[in-house]
């Protein structure tokens, strides 16, 4: 984190408060100069985001070639949102089960969909956090480097 730990803690708390309100994020990936963005369900666990990603989807293909990703979590109104950057990895075993449990715990009604499609759990380790919160007066965004 940066040198201003009090401010950083306030930004991290605001990030968690905002993220708690949403179940869908936009995941941006890039490979060979070709960007891609896709919407998906997610769960936050500490400084990690877990997503369930379709194995044959464009997002999975790109993140396997380039683990650097970005996420946007918002309500489609630019007054309160979180932007994140981090490193993605496909996880297996107990970590896969943990990620699935966290994500499906937030959207249990989608469990049948995830059982019909081949998917993997992707864990994104956060490296940079931007929080824009106009009601708090945070515009431009407050930024935390991890």
Describe the model:
By secondary structure, this protein is of the alpha+beta class. It has a single domain (5-145), classed as Roll (Pnp Oxidase, Chain A), CATH 2.30.110. The chain has four helices and seven strands; from the N terminus they run αβββαββααββ. It has helices at 5-20, 58-65, 93-106, 111-116, and strands at 24-31, 34-45, 48-54, 68-73, 80-91, 119-133, 138-145. A hairpin with a 6-residue loop joins β4 and β5 (80-91). The termini are close together. The model has no long low-confidence stretch (mean pLDDT 94).
Features:
146 residues, alpha+beta, Pnp Oxidase, Chain A, 4 helices, 30% helix, 47% strand, globular
Q: Could you write a compact summary of the structure shown?
A:
By secondary structure, this protein is an alpha+beta fold.
């Amino acid at each position: 984190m940066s040198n201003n730990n009090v401010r950083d803690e306030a930004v991290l708390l605001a990030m968690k408060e905002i993220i708690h309100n949403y179940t869908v994020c936009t995941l941006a990936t890039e490979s060979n100069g070709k960007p891609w963005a896709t919407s998906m369900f997610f769960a936050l666990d500490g400084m990690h985001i877990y997503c369930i990603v379709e194995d044959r989807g464009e997002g999975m293909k790109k993140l396997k070639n380039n683990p650097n990703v970005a996420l946007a979590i918002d309500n489609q109104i630019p007054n309160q949102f979180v932007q994140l950057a981090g490193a993605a990895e496909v996880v297996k075993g107990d970590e896969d089960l943990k990620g699935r449990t966290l994500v499906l715990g937030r959207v249990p009604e989608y469990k049948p969909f995830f059982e019909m499609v081949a998917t993997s759990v992707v864990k994104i380790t956060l490296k940079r956090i931007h929080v824009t919160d106009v009601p708090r007066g945070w515009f431009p965004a407050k930024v935390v480097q991890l």
